[in-house]
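Researcher: We're reviewing a set of sequences before deciding which ones to prioritize for further study. For each one, I'd like a predicted 3D structure that I can look through quickly. This is Acetyltransferase. If possible, include the structure in token form so it fits the rest of the review sheet.
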Amino acid sequence: MLRDLDTLIASMQPELQPGVYVFASLPHDAAVSGAGIVATFREREGLTVVMEEGAARAAGIEPLFRAAWITLTVHSDLNAVGLTAAFARALGDVNISCNVIAAAYHDHIFVPVDDAGRAMDALFDLQRRAGMLAASSKP
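Model: Here's the predicted structure for Acetyltransferase, in token form for your review sheet.
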């Protein structure tokens, strides 16, 4: 488990997950079990779900946001400081929005589906630059 920011960024290894995912909002009493659900979050206004687009379509769920899902495969510490800010800035610098879910082992980034390739390029560029910085600071 990594905590050092430069090491985290240099090791983040972004991986684009196959498929298209959607964010949607459901009533609090909605039954949300089954295939296709990636994450849920209970908010005051309703239950936010992140799920496979095909499963949402089959269930008649209206998407709020269509996304590509990128996982940073480095095992980051939940107490690590600055990783989210670093990749959000790298994506923001190329005008790509991101929605982030930090799970127990990895960070998961959801970007507009049409921006997936550019997002991966931006993240790999950030990783490469951090690796060069880390290498140049070694004695």
